[in-house]
Write a structure and sequence with these properties.
Elements (H helix, E strand, L loop, with lengths): L1 E3 L1 H14 L5 E7 L6 E9 L13 H13 L3 E9 L8 H5 L7 E6 L7 E8 L2 E5 L1 E3 L1
Parallel strand pairs: 1-3, 1-8, 4-5
Antiparallel strand pairs: 2-3, 2-4, 5-6, 6-7
Length: 137
């Protein structure tokens, strides 16, 4: 399970809407609670270097800065976030191929229904997708 404070969930949605028509992306940092639950402490909104409505790629300069800050704060990378502009919040074939962090949650926000955005989380290991509960706190 991944716990997202309500304000972080709201940041994910706001960043997704602001990024339109492209996919938005970013990183989630936090703590690994009891081993079964991770808790997001901070969302780092990042630039989609692909500038695409179909794919995302974290800006490498921003990614390095964020990884350094996460380490400095003693946090862990707990999530990699991106939005789907017109499809459900489920990892696409491209998402599964580019899932290089099996220990992280892949958090997706769907804007297919802009009045009711959906946030879901998954782990992806060697292309296999497993959904995890998202608890808004």
């Amino acid at each position: 399970m991944i716990e997202l404070p309500e304000d972080i969930r709201d940041q994910l949605i706001s960043h997704s809407v602001a990024g339109l028509p492209d996919e938005a992306c970013g990183l989630l940092a936090g703590t690994n609670g009891d081993g079964r639950t991770v808790r997001a402490e901070r969302f780092y909104a990042m630039t989609n270097a692909d500038h695409s409505a179909m794919t995302y790629r974290l800006d490498p300069t921003e990614q390095l800065r964020v990884f350094n800050e996460i380490e400095d704060k003693g946090w862990e990378l707990i999530g990699i976030f991106h939005s789907h502009t017109h499809t459900e919040a489920y990892p696409s074939e491209t998402d599964r191929r580019q899932a290089f962090y099996p220990e992280a949650h892949y958090v997706l926000a769907s804007l297919a229904d802009r009045n009711n955005p959906v946030v879901r989380a998954f782990t992806i290991t060697e292309g296999d997708v497993e959904e995890h509960e998202v608890r808004i706190t």
